[in-house]
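Need residues for this backbone.
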């Protein structure tokens, strides 16, 4: 299992406990100080989770616009956390305390 950072762990734990997180909950868990950069950073972490088979996002999860972020390689400006689905791999990891 991949080792999750604090922001990723907060995201999947919240969703596992049937709580839809808000972006404000991630402020102290992300490196970025700028709100626009935070969205790109969180989007990057979420895409890592999706690539590794922990979550699935639908087409409307990310609202994108503007230029590609130089560090995070995406154009995420808004995240709709209610459109994320946890996959069995992350559920097992949370239940077995492996994340």
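Answer:
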């Amino acid at each position: 299992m991949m080792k999750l950072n604090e922001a990723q762990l907060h995201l999947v734990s919240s969703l596992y406990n049937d709580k839809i997180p808000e972006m404000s909950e991630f402020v102290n868990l992300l490196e970025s100080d700028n709100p626009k950069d935070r969205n790109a950073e969180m989007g990057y972490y979420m895409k890592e989770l999706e690539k590794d088979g922990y979550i699935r996002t639908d087409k409307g999860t990310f609202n994108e616009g503007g230029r590609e972020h130089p560090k995070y390689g995406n154009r995420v400006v808004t995240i709709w956390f209610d459109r994320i689905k946890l996959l069995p791999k992350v559920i097992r990891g949370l239940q077995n305390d492996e994340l």
